[in-house]
Amino acid sequence: MAGNNKSVLSQKVQPNLKDYDKAYAEFEWDDVKEEITGLPGNKGLNIAYEAVDRHVKNGKGEELAMRWISKKNKVKDFSFRFVKEETNRFANVLKQLGIKKGDSVFSLAGRIPELYFAALGTLKNVSVFCPLFSAFGPEPIHQRLSRGDGKVLVTTKRLFEKKIQPIWERLPKLKYIFITDIDDHQSDRILSLPKLMQKAEPNFEIPTTDPEDMALLHFTSGTTGMPKGAIHVHQAVYTHYITGKYVLDFHPYDIFWCTADPGWVTGTSYGIISPLLHGVTNIIDEADFDAERWYSILQDQKVTIWYTAPTAIRMLMRLDIKPLEEYDLSHLRLIHSVGEPLNPEAVEWSRVTLGMPILDNWWQTETGGIMIANYPSMDVKPGSMGKPLPGIQAGIVEKVSKKQVREIAKPDTVGELALKPAWPSMFRGYLHDKGRYDKCFRGEWYITGDLAKKDEEGYYWFVGRADDIIKTSGHMVGPFEVESALMEHSAVAEVGVIGKPDPMTGELVKAFVALKPDKKASEELQLDIIGFARTKLGSAVAPKEIEFVDSLPKTRSGKIMRRLLKARELGLPEGDTSTLETKL
Fold first, then answer.
1. CA–CA separation, 310 and 324 (whole Å)
2. Residues 98, 242: Cα–Cα separation, whole Å
3. Dihedrals φ, ψ of 90, to 5°?
4. CA dist 569 to 465, 477, 510, 563, 564, Å?
């Protein structure tokens, strides 16, 4: 099954963003609005209409919208017309049960078709869709349903019995639970979704939708306190569209696979909305990570664009698989990554092992869409986030006062990464927490909380979260820099770096290292890694301590939880660990 040559079709593809500088200088968000039609009859703007109904209206109803692959490899295909009718049915179910505009509809499920129909049907009803990770325990679920004013929950029988029943009595606002895999209603509040859908009409008229109507609610964990509910509106569709066009480089024939769980913002913005907006075929795999399964999907489904996470890439790097020799990946033309910064060695590994570099990009739950990216037409600088999306004003700033910052003009100077507000997918608030929202802004800038630098060519480089930076012997050390260097050691599979209080240096650099499967922990290896790091980084920056671990704590989106490593090291409270997931 060998095949490492690009298909003729892939070779002919010209990037949508051919000239970055020209596009950035001339871009206007109003131009994007001409490509997004809006609801018929000037009734506003609705994400679900643009993602589904618009294509049916334009004669593409029989084209393939989604291909779902079950854990047991059963394949189901859904045309745009079918998706339109199923999402209409779900919207009618909500309407008939009295779920109104602005009411919150939550999902707690894996990557099953019902989740996708529920998401889009909720948006059609101008209700608010809020996905939850199926790996959450009862308490994180209770926190989010309570803070998010959940009226409806879509889930499975197993998850209901295991995670909802223990908290059922503590959720008085939750009116209905729709269970996806039971045939009959259990009570007047615990309802069979198949039965409801069977009786619902396949036609639905989307109500007038203001672009500023609330559409999506995504919870994001902080280092302390309760999870924050970031509010996004229907106008976010413009960002979903233009990032699909310029960053992911969607073309009509593309077959796209985003591996993210819909419980994470990427799984909604780019696992549901953006590919549907562009009318490309969206691959959905129900199963968890498995290297051979993933390579087989890339081959068998002839995936052209693949969007995944650095954690997945690092896991693939650990395995003795030669994909270009063992699988036919000739259709694959682009690989994108998001979740946390991608180490330079991963980009180089991809060049050699997969025949192309991975294009990293940066954004947050709060930004709602990709803000800074490596584009297919640009040279890739391994380790860089790339350049800002046309229409996005980014900058490196430093604090002047409690309320003001100023932009740093000197290249390669570390400061806080900031964005000028007003892009369409910018979050409109944290639900029920205006004070927390207001603290995100200083003067004319949204402060991301990430430290970064910009080089002379305008590429941005991630340094670390502002609260992750290590101050050692007068040096400011970014953990990502140390992690990237250690990842180049032949024995290292993954690494997380923290600052540990030290009376002599202020903080010393400590690294938690997970080894490759064929390597064994030893004092000799420990010293070898420290020596390697000193050669790469210098003695001031290199870790003073190495601790071998079986695995690193990560979120479901693949981010290494450095603050959790630090809390455990120092015996401090761990804070919100609801998004912690030991497996991908």
1. 20
2. 35
3. -65, -40
4. 19, 19, 10, 10, 8
Q: Which residues pair with 232 in a beta bridge?
A: 216
Give CA separation, 377 vs 331, 392, 504, in Å: 18, 18, 49
For residues 499 and 470, what is the distance between their CA atoms, to the nearest angstrom?
Answer: 5
User: Do the Cβ atoms of 449 and 466 come closer than 8 Å?
Assistant: yes
List Cβ neighbours of 401 (8 Å cut-off, separation of 6 or more). Answer: none
Does domain 468-570 sit in CATH 3.30.930.10? no
Name residue 272's amino acid: I
> pLDDT, tens digit, for every residue of 396-426?
999 888 789 999 999 999 999 999 999 999 9
Q: Give all strands (DSSP E) within 358-438, no chain letters.
A: 358-362, 372-373, 387-388, 394-399, 405-407, 415-419
Query: What's this model's pTM, rounded to 2 decimal places?
Result: 0.84
Per-residue exposure over 136-167, b if at least 16 CB sit within 10 Å of its own CB, e if not = beeebbbbbbbbbbbbbbbbbeebbeebbeeb
Encoding tokens for residue 479? Answer: 């953990």
Burial of 185 (0-12, 13-18, 19+ CB in 10 A): middle
DSSP 206: P
Phi and psi (nearest 5°) for 190? -105, 105
**What is the Cα–Cα distance from 49 to 52, expressed in whole angstroms?**
5
Residue boundaries of the structural domains of the chain: 33-454, 468-570
**Assigned architecture for domain 33-454:** 3-Layer(aba) Sandwich (3.40)
Give pLDDT, residue 461. Answer: 94
Average per-residue pLDDT in the chain? 90
Phi-psi region of 157 (alpha: psi -120 to 50; beta: other; left: phi over 0): alpha
